[in-house]
Amino acid sequence: MTTIKTTCERCGDVELEPGDLALELDPTQESGVYLFTCPSCIVVQRRPANPRVVNVLLATGVTYEVVTPSSNDHPITEAEIATFARRLDEEEDLFRLLTP
User: Which among 4, 21, 27, 47 is most buried, taking Cβ atoms within 10 Å?
Assistant: First the structure.
C-alpha cells in the first residue's frame, strides 16, 4: 500500500494512506487544498496543494472534489464595514437586534 508523508502542525511528520486524505480542487487553477485528520492528535489539517502535490495525490488514488468558490468567499469591503458601523451607531437598542 502507498504511504503518504505529510506534516501535522502539532505533531510533526505523519504517515497516511490515500484513503486518509481528501483533495479539494479549484477549477480555476491547477492547485487545491488537501485535508486529513492527524492520527495522533485527531485535529483536521488543511494544507495547500500546488500542481505537483495535486498530481502526486491523484496518482496515489486520493479522492477529490472540485470546489467552486462561492460568492461569499470575498473579503469584507471598507464600504461594508462603514455601513455596519453606521447602523450600529444609529441603533438605540442593540439587544433588539438579537431577537428574531
Answer: 21
